[in-house]
Design brief:
This protein has helices at about 15-25, 30-45, 50-55, 60-70, 90-100, 110-120, 130-135, 140-150, 165-175, 185-190, 210, and strands at about 5, 100-105, 125-130, 155-160, 175-180, 200-205. By secondary structure, it is of the alpha/beta class. About 35% of the residues are buried.
């Protein structure tokens, strides 16, 4: 029985289109070019940060973030807000919570992401980021923390994410059930791989999840 459902953030709850297009504009790179290179990183199993090195070799990303913040202190810059939520998020989270399950958000995110998520007033019980835990997916320690905060056995947790490496395979190795959501570049690409069969569920929308959990 699934007692807790835990969600990744980027391209699971948050549509990152605006984030990446702002980066393209900031760096003076055509949007299609930047997004295409980002997709290439997903296809090649490379870190998304490699996109910056390819389009702007030698760029100090952290220095660029600081400069951007100084120039545009009130803008979103590399961050997100409620306008970036996928349209199925609120209803799906509310439906899951209505079943009595614990609903948690826990993903690889920087420190400021927690407040951004809290400000959305999502129908969830808990919100955590890798920054506050000091450990990132796919490190097994991340999933130990997930089990701790949900206060339930790993086999009673379903972790939902858009990636095989960070979400499905890592959470599965920790003993959790998993749902692969087919959206975002990683989601579409990873759903085509043979390892996608290791996900307990594959979904195209979070709206499917409440009913599909009954299969587990």
């Amino acid at each position: 029985m699934i007692n807790a459902v835990v969600f990744d953030v980027g391209e699971t709850l948050i549509d990152e289109t605006r984030i990446w297009t702002r980066w393209a504009d900031r760096l003076g790179v055509p949007r299609l070019t930047f997004l295409g290179v980002l997709g290439g990183m997903a296809a090649l199993d490379r870190h998304h940060r490699d996109t910056f090195e390819i389009v702007r070799p030698g760029l100090d990303v952290e220095a660029e973030i600081r400069a951007w913040a100084a120039e545009d202190p009130h803008g979103l810059r590399e961050n997100f807000d409620a306008d970036d939520l996928y349209p199925d998020v609120r209803a799906a989270l509310a439906a899951l919570r209505a079943t009595g399950r614990t609903v948690v958000v826990a993903g690889n995110q920087p420190p400021q992401a927690k407040k951004a998520l809290q400000d959305m007033h999502l129908p969830v019980d808990l919100i955590f980021t890798s920054a506050e835990w000091g450990v990132e997916k796919p490190d097994p320690a991340f999933y130990l923390r997930v089990a701790e905060v949900t206060r339930t056995l790993a086999e009673n947790i379903c972790y939902v994410g858009d990636r095989l490496d960070n979400d499905v395979l890592a959470a599965g190795a920790a003993g959790m059930r998993t749902a692969l959501i087919k959206r975002g570049p990683w989601g579409y690409l990873h759903a085509q791989r043979p390892q996608a069969a290791r996900a307990d569920l594959t979904i195209e929308s979070l709206a499917e999840l409440p009913a599909r959990l009954e299969e587990l």
